[in-house]
Structure formats: structure tokens, C-alpha cells
Amino acid sequence: MIDRQEPVQRALVVHPLRGDESISRDPDLRLIEACGLAEALDLEVIDGRLEPVRQVRPGTYFGTGKMEEVKALCGQGQADVLILDDQLSPVQQRNLEKELQVKVVDRTGLILEIFARRARTREGRLQVELARLSYERSRLVKTWTHLERQRGGTGKTGGPGERQIELDRRMIADKILKLKKELEEVKRTRALQRASRKRVPYPVVALVGYTNAGKSTLFNRAASATVLAKDMPFATLDTTLRAVRTPSGRDIILSDTVGFITDLPTELVAAFRATLEEVAQADLLVHVRDIAHAESDNQRRDVNDVLERVLADHETRPPLIEAWNKMDCLDEAGAAFVRARAQASGLDGSVRGICVSALNGEGLGDLFALIDQELSLDARPLDLVIGPEQGAARAWLYRKGAVRHEETDERGYTHVHVRLTADDAARFVAQWPQILSEVPFGPLGIIPEPVHFLQT
């Protein structure tokens, strides 16, 4: 019987300790994260090392002495792959592979490979392929120097033609252009879908955060969905939307998005711009944080940096709140400390945080109460008089969670006190302009003349 299963590749993971590196991140945790990324590709991590690098060499990254040390490590463990947790230039990557005689993958290549494996939808595959080609285009340097120019023309008089590297560059450029056109169509389709959702007056709440912070688990619990949720980096790449009703009765659209990570490759941010538009166009962002992680505050800073890049071209930024997830992973003293921090959050103008556990449901009621509150910040009070034949209007208001008080008079007319945002009020006016009124509640039985509030 023939064994067709591919052999498991053995990987040595190295996180360089550079002299110019920020000391705000714990190197040991960065190494653990890099090992987790390697394991997400089904690589067998034989060793993980922190290696001091005083100066990065432009040609080989490592100096001569350090190169010999790494070469010995690869040989001792019989590694097939060296994972270097840093950005490598094409020349550095080629020279390292030549010297070490193993496959060399930098942080960007590692993340791109994970994305390539996890993408499921056509849109996700397009975005990953565009990012991969943009990354590999610069890595054709001297790959084909063993091939001469191909002869142009016919016979002996033809001049020199294109080198193989020039042909490959042109093919990649053509492919990138084609992918960009296809992604523009995806972007146009998403814009139409967003416009369609706006006609159905549901606000969009997008879950954002560091990879493996628990966004998909929270999404599944809140929306009764079955999105893949695993303890691994980048389990979610494709945006998923579900309609959710909050405890107040408000209907919202909850969006699960791709996770962010430290040093997220520029190619991925650019390629996933169509997907990340869901974040930019959301009415509210919920930053899901792994509050039990030792680097939670640094991860928060990394997520905010990526959001700045994503929202750089937009005039306004959606409001943001934080869901401090994985409370179930803390001991009693740690949980008490985090709850005290959450209670004090927002008092000094900082982002408001709510303690939750997506795994057991703790705090989700408080989270959605805060979501309701944030979505109602720009709402204005209105008094409406709804006739017996206008049940659809009353149901619409309840779906929005806008009703604060109602009474019914002896004629069957319902006097309703609501809070509506300007956008929702405009939608209500478009459908039921004859019943909108801004007059205060009068005695029951007296039906005020409807007044169109947009005319005031």
C-alpha cells in the first residue's frame, strides 16, 4: 500500500533580539506566538530560540559567527525549515537558504501561507492570492540568472529577447492586475450589499481584535452561529454576518472579521481592504480582547495601529467599545482586579470595557446593553401617534428597540415615546410620513395633528 501522506516538515523557529527592537514586547511571548504560527501550518517545531542580533547584515541578515550557530542548530535538529520571526529582504532570504541549505520563511511569508490555507470563499482566495503575488514579485531577484536571454525573431538575425525573470515579472504583473479588477468587482458588490442593508434599518456592529482573542466564539454564542472557532491563529479569514436581537429588542447585524496581529504585512492590509471596508462602514466596533493574555495591552495597541491604517482614508471613525474576553481563564484575584479596571474604564475619557466570557456567556448581557446604549447616543426623543391600521410601523419601532413608553387611548390609537437616530428617523419618515409627530404627550383621547419634524 502506497503512503500518499506528505511527510511532516521539521521547523526551527528563531526570534531575533535586535538592538533597535522595542522593549515593550516580551521576547519570550513573541517567540511563543511565532511557534504557534508555525504549528498552525502543521509544521513540527523542533526548537524555538531567541538569538541576539547586534546588527542586521543587508546581505545575509546574520553575521558570520551567528550564521555558523544557526547552521549548527539546523543541522543538529535536522530541520527542513527555518522560521525567522522578522522581515527578510529577497536577497537575505536567498543567501540564507544557500548558506543553511534549508527552506527559509520570514514572518510575512509565514502569515501569508496561513492565510492561503484558511481562505474558504472566492473573495478570501482572491485577496490572499493578490497578497502572495505582491510579496513574491520582489523575490524573483536572480532566481533565473542561470537562463540566458531567449532569442527574438526568427533565424540567426533575431536580437536578444526577454530573460525568464522578465517574463515571470510580466506574468505576475498581469495576474495582479486581473486580481485587482476582480477585487474591485467584489468591493462594488459589497457596497451594493451595504446599501441594501441600509434600506433594512439594522445597525452593523463589527467584532475586531487580535487573532485568537475569541471573536468567533463570541459571535457564535451571540448569533447562535457555527463559524469555525478554534484555539489557533487566524481561524477566521472570511467575514460572516448574522442578524442578532439585543435584550432591548433592537435588531442589529453582527459581523465577525479577520483577526489582526503584530507586524501585520502591508500586503495583507492592502489585499483585504475590500473585507476591512465592513469595519470602516460599521456603526459600532467591538474590540474583543484576550484580557487573560500577558500581552493584552500591547495587543490592544497593535489592533489600534491596524485600525488607523484601515480607517486612514475615512473622514469619520466608528465609535468603539471593548469586550474583555476570557474572564474564565483568570483566577479569582485576577478576575477581581480586571473587573475593577473595567468598572473604572470610560470615566477618564478612555474606551469603555465590559468583562465577558464568550465560552460560558458571562457578561454578554452587559455587553449588549452597552451596545444598545452606544447605538442610541445620537438618538433624539420623538412622540408618535400610531393608528390601529399602522401595526407595521409599531412593529418596526420595536424591532429597532426604540420604544421607551406607549399608551393606547379609547379610540385604539397608540401614543408611543421613542428614541430614534437621525438616519432611522429619516427611514421612518420615508415609510410612514403621515404619523410622525413631535408634540408632547397629551391627555389620552386627544389625537394631536401629526407634524413632520424634518420641517421644523
TrEMBL record:
Location of the Hflx-type G domain: 203-379
Keywords annotated in UniProt: Cytoplasm, GTP-binding, Magnesium, Metal-binding, Nucleotide-binding
PROSITE patterns tied to this protein: G_HFLX
SUPFAM superfamilies on file: P-loop containing nucleoside triphosphate hydrolases (SSF52540)
Positions with a binding annotation for Mg(2+): 216, 236
Binding sites annotated in the UniProt record for GTP: 209-216, 234-238, 256-259, 325-328, 357-359
Gene3D superfamilies: 6.10.250.2860, GTPase HflX, N-terminal domain, P-loop containing nucleotide triphosphate hydrolases
Listed GO CC annotations: cytoplasm
Record field: transmembrane: none
A Pfam family assignment: HflX_C
Compartment list: Cytoplasm
Cofactor requirement: Mg(2+)
Family designation: Belongs to the TRAFAC class OBG-HflX-like GTPase superfamily. HflX GTPase family.
HAMAP family in the record: GTPase_HflX
NCBIfam families in UniProt: GTP_HflX
Subunit-level organization: Monomer. Associates with the 50S ribosomal subunit.
Function: GTPase that associates with the 50S ribosomal subunit and may have a role during protein synthesis or ribosome biogenesis.
Protein name as catalogued: GTPase HflX
Source species: Candidatus Phycosocius bacilliformis
